[in-house]
Amino acid sequence: MEPAAPPALPPRSAQVAAALAAAGIPGEVHLLADSARTAAEAAAALGCEVGAIANSLVFLSDGEPVLVLTSGRHRVDTAALAARWGRGPLRRATPEQVREATGQAIGGVAPTGHPRPLPTVVDLALTDYPRIWAAAGTPHTVFPTTADELLRLTGGTLLPVVGDQPDGR
Questions:
Q1: CB-count exposure of residue 116 (10 Å: 0-12, 13-18, 19+)
Q2: Of 8, 10, 27, 146, which is least packed with CB atoms within 10 Å of its CB?
Q3: Which positions of the chain have pLDDT values less than 70?
């Protein structure tokens, strides 16, 4: 079931919608009646598999924020991902660091619309889904997209984010 497109978006979500339009990404931002703060909440609200939710997680690597867009079915293996990505150790950003890096709060971090672009990884497992959903700047807004669109939108790198499976699935 697709949510109805809202007549007016929250300011952060309007920024995300503008960034999508500027990048030529056709996904329209949707306002959900219930929170989509977690992958499970988003999947329930959208009627899709939890793996089709793109979680936007902010980490710090060598003191700099980086973004990991992971399938809702995965937990990021930070050591394995840092090694694959060729970065220093990854540690979760605090809520304050997330807001400073993205301008958005945890639970609503979009892949775009940040004050400046962030180095980004897109989870290889997201390619398993023809349509995925990502947050659009608030815990109540989302947009449909694909892994290819996320790569184009973020300039990201496609990598597995789990440690024990070589193909990341």
A1: exposed
A2: 8
A3: 1-7, 164-169
167 within some domain: no
Number of other residues whose CB lies within 10 A of the CB of residue 161? 26
In a domain, 143, yes or no: yes
Q: What is the pLDDT of residue 149?
A: 97
Q: Is residue 164 part of a domain?
A: no
Which residue range forms the structural domain that includes residue 73?
11-159
Residue with tokens 């973004």: 67
pLDDT of residue 6: 44
pLDDT at 39: 87
Say how many domains are in the chain.
1
Which H/E stretch holds residue 41? Answer: helix 39-46
